[in-house]
């Protein structure tokens, strides 16, 4: 009999795979249908809006998952959070409209920001329902809620590409249509599937209590939102839209490569919350899970680096492959650290160690921002990638130093060994001058062999995995 964990992981992985494929198609259609300047401007607008709406959540998004997973009144949590996003979202968009009205000219970048922002406002309004589905561990429902927007955009942009009608204005209209449809469908299917009552509710004491509980996470959101797209905004404003187009292409593929992490991360928050709430900490399972994550993370880096230049130059007519090879290599070194940081962050979050998490993000953001300001003017896009890598390493070092579970102290060794195996395998395969697909096959075989030799893969791992996913 399959466990609930396996069913949730399957549903979440399926929606992520579909969403990532649709997202990849959207990204490809835009990157090839628009010139580099237009593509860079669109990504700059998306980066600014992502930072803004993540910040406006005040950290309530993650806190709501934890509150619902711990058994609090789901309807009340959703209602308070829904009231928050409507209030803050309308205020933010009102400020955008005011700035547009007061601007000396209404041409250029600002109208694009307003158009795309209208759609992202709808996505922001739908976040309470997605977070509630995650807290309730209704991952099949969450999968359906997350698929709408990308599928609509992918279909519409495909039609526009066939008709040779892709432009910044048409792309913005497509984004708005998909985002509005996502909000409508999310409200309808959440209401019908969960029967959880919700409404706009203003209760000053309860809202203030929710804000106080989320206050440490608000600081985390401020820093993670800024760090997630600080390099994009800095490159777009201080370098050029063309350089941003190149960097954002490499970064977007790098983000999409973390699909396995995106699949497992939402499942860990409610499970770790319950585990630490009842002091039922199985350190053997935790260390085995982390070792498996490192194997996947390092393999992802290996695949990207072996295939990158020949594959991407082939599908983008030479626009984004070789020019991004060094940037992509540095970014892929971040992948194992992202897995490690998410793993330890989830443990700390489940234990409600919010002040320590905030401190870690202050240090991480400071490192990232300072290095971006120094390295981007000197080295361009590779400098931005290195700044992000350095910040990931610093965050990992801080989290490990704060870890109180002794059995987890050596997990950095798994990261080091798996990454070394991947680096050696990729380097050795590339020296033979093979076709990229043959090189990948050889690198994969060598990687697996080295994993067994370094005991990062063990004969009993398959049985442990089966036990984890069966009742």
SS-derived structural category: mainly alpha
Low-confidence stretches: none
How many domains is the backbone divided into?
2
**How is the main sheet built?**
none
How large a portion of the residues is in β-strands, by DSSP E? under 5%
Number of DSSP E strands? 0
Mean pLDDT across the residues is 81
Task: Tell me the number of helical segments per DSSP (H or I, 4 or more residues long).
Answer: 18
Helix-strand pattern: HHHHHHHHHHHHHHHHHH
Provide structural commentary:
It is a single chain. The chain has 471 residues and is mainly alpha-helical. The chain folds into two domains: 33-216, no CATH class; 257-471, no CATH class. Helix content is 83%, strand content 0%. The chain has 18 helices and no strands. It has helices at residues 4-33, 36-56, 60-69, 74-102, 109-135, 139-162, 168-194, 204-238, 241-256, 259-277, 283-315, 325-332, 335-350, 354-379, 381-402, 411-430, 436-453, 461-468. Helix 2 crosses helix 9, helix 3 packs parallel to helix 5 and helix 11 packs antiparallel against helix 13 (335-350). It is globular. The termini are close together.
């Amino acid at each position: 009999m399959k466990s609930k964990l396996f069913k949730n992981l399957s549903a979440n992985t399926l929606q992520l795979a579909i969403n990532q494929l649709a997202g990849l198609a959207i990204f490809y259609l835009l990157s090839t249908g628009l010139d580099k300047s237009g593509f860079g401007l669109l990504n700059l607008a998306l980066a600014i809006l992502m930072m803004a709406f993540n910040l406006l959540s005040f950290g309530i998004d993650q806190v709501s998952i934890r509150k619902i997973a711990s058994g609090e009144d789901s309807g009340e949590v959703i209602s308070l959070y829904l009231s928050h996003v409507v209030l803050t979202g309308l205020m933010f968009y009102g400020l955008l409209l005011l700035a547009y009205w007061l601007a000396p000219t209404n041409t250029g970048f600002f109208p694009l920001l307003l158009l795309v922002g209208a759609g992202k406002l709808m996505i922001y309004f739908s976040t309470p329902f997605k977070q509630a589905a995650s807290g309730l561990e209704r991952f099949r429902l969450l999968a359906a809620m997350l698929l709408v927007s990308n599928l609509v955009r992918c279909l519409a942009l495909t039609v526009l590409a066939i008709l040779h009608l892709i432009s910044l204005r048409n792309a913005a209209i497509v984004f708005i249509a998909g985002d509005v449809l996502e909000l409508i469908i999310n409200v309808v299917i959440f209401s019908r599937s969960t029967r959880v009552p919700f409404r706009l509710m203003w209760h000053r004491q309860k809202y203030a209590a929710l804000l106080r509980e989320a206050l440490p996470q608000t600081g985390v959101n401020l820093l993670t939102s800024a760090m997630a797209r600080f390099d994009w905004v800095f490159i777009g404003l201080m370098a050029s839209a063309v350089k941003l187009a190149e960097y954002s292409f490499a970064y977007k593929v790098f983000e999409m490569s973390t699909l396995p992490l995106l699949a497992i991360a939402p499942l860990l928050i409610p499970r770790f919350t319950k585990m630490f709430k009842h002091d039922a900490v199985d350190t053997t399972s935790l260390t085995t899970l982390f070792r498996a994550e490192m194997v996947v993370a390092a393999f992802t880096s290996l695949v990207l680096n072996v295939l990158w230049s020949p594959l991407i130059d082939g599908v983008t007519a030479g626009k984004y492959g070789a020019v991004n090879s060094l940037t992509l290599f540095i970014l892929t070194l971040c992948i194992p650290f992202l897995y490690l940081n998410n793993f330890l962050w989830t443990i700390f979050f489940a234990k409600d160690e919010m002040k320590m998490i905030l401190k870690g993000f202050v240090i991480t953001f400071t490192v990232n921002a300072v290095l971006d300001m120094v390295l981007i003017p000197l080295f361009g896009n590779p400098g931005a990638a290195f700044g992000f890598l350095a910040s990931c390493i610093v965050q990992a070092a801080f989290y490990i130093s704060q870890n109180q579970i002794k059995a987890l102290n050596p997990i950095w060794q798994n990261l080091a060994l798996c990454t070394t195996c991947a680096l050696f395998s990729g380097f050795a395969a590339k020296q033979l001058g093979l076709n990229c697909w043959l090189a990948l096959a050889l690198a994969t075989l060598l990687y697996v062999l080295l994993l067994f030799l370094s005991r990062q893969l063990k004969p009993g791992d398959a049985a442990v995995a089966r036990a984890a996913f069966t009742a």
